[in-house]
Design goal:
CATH class of one domain: Alpha Beta
CATH topology of one domain: endopeptidase fold (from Nostoc punctiforme)
CATH architecture of one domain: Alpha-Beta Complex
Shape: elongated
Number of strands: 8
CATH superfamily of one domain: endopeptidase domain like (from Nostoc punctiforme)
Number of helices: 4
Strand order of the largest sheet: 3-8-4-5-6-7
Helix content: 40-55%
Distance between the termini: 129 Å
Structural class: alpha+beta
Radius of gyration: 47 Å
Strand content: 15-25%
Length: about 230
């Protein structure tokens, strides 16, 4: 009888112990997995945020480089245009510098040298020496060259034509030497009375005889033929 009671006691203890172990296993195991899941989810969230930040920084870097490249190209284009304008202005100055070397040269109809020169020969000689251009020999033919310019738009180096014998027949030409702030236009020409000199379109003699103006040497002409030199 005692043996049987002892056997039952041992069996009950074993059953309770096993139940306790199972209970501990079942309860503790899901808690561990849940904690690991939460930890992994948190790490994944952090990694995604870092990835988004990195992507944003990369895109911002690309955008900045693109803007910088565009500005560099734009600045290069502007600098080139400025350089072209400077070179063109220098060439106009060369024309006028050459023209001024003739100041005081006597007028001679049909003359083409510094010993005596007429108005159209003076113009073609100046432009030929300063730019290499070959203009026609007579004023009327020179008036057919280039682009017609309004009086209000005249610039240094433009040609101005006159009919000083009445009517509309072109018989005289000069080179615009300057345009003042108040609009006065001065020109250098070979006048029959005093040879190569500077006159004003405000002059009571030349003003009424003015007929038209031409630009035979423009920025476009310079870019096409001289900018590469």
């Amino acid at each position: 009888m005692k043996k049987r009671v002892l056997f039952y006691s041992i069996m009950m203890v074993a059953i309770f112990s096993l139940q306790s172990c199972v209970t501990n296993y079942v309860v503790s195991s899901p808690t561990t997995y849940q904690n690991e899941y939460k930890s992994n989810a948190k790490l994944a969230s952090i990694d995604n945020k870092k990835l988004e930040v990195a992507k944003s920084q990369l895109m911002s870097s690309f955008a900045s480089e693109k803007v910088a490249a565009a500005r560099s190209v734009e600045n290069a284009a502007k600098n080139e245009e400025i350089a072209k304008t400077v070179r063109f202005t220098k060439k106009i100055d060369d024309i006028l510098t050459e023209a001024e070397t003739y100041l005081g040269t006597p007028y001679r109809f049909g003359g083409m040298t510094r010993n005596g020169i007429d108005c159209s020969a003076f113009v073609l000689s100046v432009f030929g020496a300063a730019t290499g251009m070959q203009l026609p020999r007579v004023a009327a033919a020179q008036a057919m060259e280039g682009e017609r310019i309004e009086k209000a738009d005249l610039q240094k180096g433009d040609l101005i034509f006159f009919a000083h014998r009445g009517g509309n027949r072109i018989s005289h030409v000069g080179i615009v030497e300057g345009v003042s702030a108040d609009g006065e236009i001065t020109f250098i020409h070979a006048a029959t009375s005093r040879g190569v000199m500077v006159s004003s379109l405000n002059d009571s003699y030349w003003g009424p005889k003015f007929k038209l103006a031409k630009r035979v040497f423009s920025q476009e002409t310079f870019d096409s033929n001289f900018a590469r030199n």
